Amino acid sequence: MNRYGAQAQKHWRTYLPQRYATIEDPNSFFSTLGEQAATAIEQRARELAGPDLPDEGYLGKLGRLNAAQRTAEEEILPELILIDPATDGPPDETPSTSTMSAGPTWTPLVEDPNDPWWQRVAEEEDDQNDDPVTPTR
């Protein structure tokens, strides 16, 4: 599974648990989805980058290609990988009812340890720190 597939699996498991629960073989599904995303991003990046420019130096070309890659990811990832939980669901379901139970889709401006959002963030950070494979910074 490539990085896009792993990113999708983590996002869907966390933010789209009902959709994730319907997937029979998550490893196969997210491997395929990751490959589709990589192909779409590569094609879009080529379109955005265009042909090499005359008298373009190494750094200029590198900047152009990197910018095209980032723009392609910004366009493709929300469509395939990082689906917005507020827009996911049956067409007759209103976003306000589907997102109210999942918590706020915004980040509070003031850190309040008693706020459920900050508690969830702290738990996620603790989980990451407890993982022996993940290097600490």
Order of helices and strands: HHHHHH
- Structural class determined from secondary elements: mainly alpha
Helix content: 55-70%
What is the number of helical segments per DSSP (H or I, 4+ residues)? 6
Percent in strands:
under 5%
Q: Which whole number gives the mean pLDDT? A: 80
Contiguous uncertain segments of 5+ residues: 90-104
Strand count, sense and closure of the main sheet?
none
Q: Tell me the distance between the termini.
A: 25 Å
C-alpha Rg (nearest Å): 19 Å
Protein name: TnpV protein
Biased composition (Polar residues): 94-104
Region (Disordered): 83-137
Task: Characterize this entry briefly.
By secondary structure, the protein is mainly alpha-helical.
Structure description:
- The chain is mostly helical.
- It has a domain at about 5-90.
- It has helices at about 5-15, 15-20, 25-50, 60-80, 95-100, 115-130.
- α1 (about 5-15) packs across α3 (about 25-50) and α3 packs across α4 (about 60-80).
- The radius of gyration is 19 Å and the shape is extended.
- The model is unreliable at about 90-105 (pLDDT under 50).
